[in-house]
């Protein structure tokens, strides 16, 4: 059978079943399931266990002061002299600007629009750490959901090899469906009205070649550090 005969048969089959397929698609539920895995009694515990299973690092702290102290320890461990970050107000962690100033850590300019984009990206290359907040944490997969926009540059979770995210236990939901529903409730039906995307981060960046050799940090940070404020 020739290629054209095969394609002709496929077209005939699709044409004969198109109305049935359209009806099945219309009848299927359109909403994202709110969760998949069984519920955990404490979502923060489930989130922590799932992310650690993916080699992510989670630091459970009791308040903002302890969170700032933990970030300081990470910066010292990585020898960071420059960071890429969300606007401090968007991270919402009191004391963080003072920590960076006290340690002499420079805050890189993450606005890379326009003709100077290449030069600004090269200037940020030495930054070892990026710091962001998070829109939500997804317990059943250990994922972070980040909504980008003004004051929340995507580079602050992509460019540096070590990503530090600040998350509060009140932001953790069970599943992806709940996270999307929460974003719609907060920003309206058009979640993307003033932003380009939502980013889901599940553990460090992993890439495997055709021989299944796994490499970390090829398309994003090689380490994910979540400072979880209980």
What would you say this structure looks like, in words?
By secondary structure, the chain is α/β, with parallel strands linked by helices. It folds into 2 domains: 1-30; 34-229, 3-Layer(aba) Sandwich (Rossmann fold). Helix content is 36%, strand content 21%. A 6-stranded parallel β-sheet has the order 1-12-7-4-2-3, sandwiched between helices. Strands 8-5-6-9 form a 4-stranded mixed β-sheet. A hairpin with a 4-residue loop joins strand 5 and strand 6 (143-147).
Question: Could you give a quick summary of the protein structure above?
Answer:
This protein has 230 residues and is of the alpha/beta class.
> Which second-level CATH architecture of the largest domain applies?
3-Layer(aba) Sandwich
| Rounded Rg | 22 Å
| Amino-to-carboxy terminus distance | 65 Å
Q: Would you report the number of β strands? A: 12
**Helix segment tally:** 7
What portion of residues is helical?
A: 25-40%
Order of helices and strands: HHEHEHHEHEEEEEHEEEE
What is the CATH class designation of the largest domain?
Alpha Beta
Number of domains: 2
Classification by helices and strands: alpha/beta
CATH topology of the largest domain: the name is Rossmann fold
